[in-house]
Amino acid sequence: MKVLIVGANGHTGRLIIDYMATHTEDHLYAMIRDENQEKELMKLGAAEVIVTDLEQEIDHEITKGMDAIIFAAGSGSHTGPDKTIEVDQEGAKKLIDSAKENQISHFVMLSAIGADEPQGPIEHYLTAKKEADDYLINSGLTYTIVRPGGLTHDSSTGKVAIAEKLDIVDERQIPRGDVAHILVASLHIKNAQNKIFEVISGDKDIEKALEII
Asked: Domain spans of the chain?
């Protein structure tokens, strides 16, 4: 399967490439905005690199021939509203439009827990995520929208709690490596198609959790 990883040079994007390169037979295309990042991503396991800036107009040819897209690009929750809208919202919409034009089979979106009801100190960030999520849902594409809790750099555990809406108010975190694993697994588990779910660290194996969402 030919898979385009958008935001490939981010913390989670790199983990996605590393995981896919060692656990799947997929042909990986890494989308980055700086060509100087190419060598390192190729070492991680990307087969090819596509240089594109999400804040500019994009050429729909970049998704032509792809089977799936994992959108893991983001400005970060600490950036201002303008930057967040440009990348997390409008950048995602551009890729969704391109995926529609080229009839991509599956679009996996990295969203954020709380995007269904944006509020609090990062309301602008969650609002942008919700706008992108809603755009994808209404696109007609086969989708999976993954809404993780706070991302950490802790070691992966392979154990998670997944639900459409998690009834948890305290610790709501998950290692980035586990999120990368979930994003990739969502491409290969049919039950994850056309699903939106929240995920944090828990006690279920990732593949088993995705099978029973």
From this structure: 2-211
pLDDT at 137: 98
The predicted pLDDT at position 167 comes to: 81
Dihedral angle sign, alpha carbons of residues 95, 19, 11, 207: positive
User: pTM for the whole thing?
Assistant: 0.95
Of 26, 21, 63, whose CA–CA distance to 42 is shortest?
21
Q: Is 125 a catalytic residue?
A: yes
Active-site hit among 19, 29, 125, 143: 125
- For the domain 2-211, what is the CATH code? 3.40.50.720
> Per the structure block, which two tokens stand in for 193?
């198609």
Query: Tens digit of pLDDT for each residue in 21-36?
Result: 999 999 999 999 899 9
- Count CB-CB contacts under 10 A for residue 70: 30
Give the CA-trace dihedral at 190, 196, 202, 208, to 10 degrees.
-10
| pLDDT of 170 higher than 80 | no
Give residues with Cβ within 8 angstroms of 121, minimum separation 6. Answer: none
